[in-house]
Input
Amino acid sequence: MVSLSDADIKRMGLTITPDSALKNYQKPFTEVEPKTGEELERLTGIDLGWDYNPGLAWLGADKVTGQMLAKLDHQIREVATPIFNNAINESQSYFKSQVATIAAKQSLGKPDYGTKLTLGHLHPNLFKTVLDIAPETKSPLVVIDEAMIKTAIQLIGFEQTSELMKLVQTQADPTFNHSVLQYVVNGILITIEVGPDMNRVVAVKQVDV
Output
């Protein structure tokens, strides 16, 4: 960017666009992000870039936090995990709005685009169970993708699906077989696939307790 004086502008034969001509360009407009169905406000001539992904835009920070938690001693992890989960839980209203959006898309027959949402970090005791059997596990972070949210709404209902952040973070008596973690919270059996850099909810169902 180069600043020009009035004399420079006159010498170069340039004209200044009046403010009145820019009004239409200063008004934000609403556009639907094609991959997620999310409504976004934009200004003319400004987009979100080639690689923008509303799910992955924040997921990187959560992945780094999860990898850091995995390296801590269990006693320190017991203190640190609730702090980071509290930070994640501040976005619970956003998660619930996304569940509602996905439910609406489902009713309209719209396809999903693989959006992932963070549910939080496993309770330290649950993660210790995983580490005792699979010490190579890199993170307690748990995510859920759009397809699984659709399935959850069908199997356990909208309200319980909206509470998955709290359910996933709760202490429970788990079973773990090197790659799949299962535990029951509030009558919901949660199945989590343990992955190399994060863990993914792959099944939920109501059970008698």
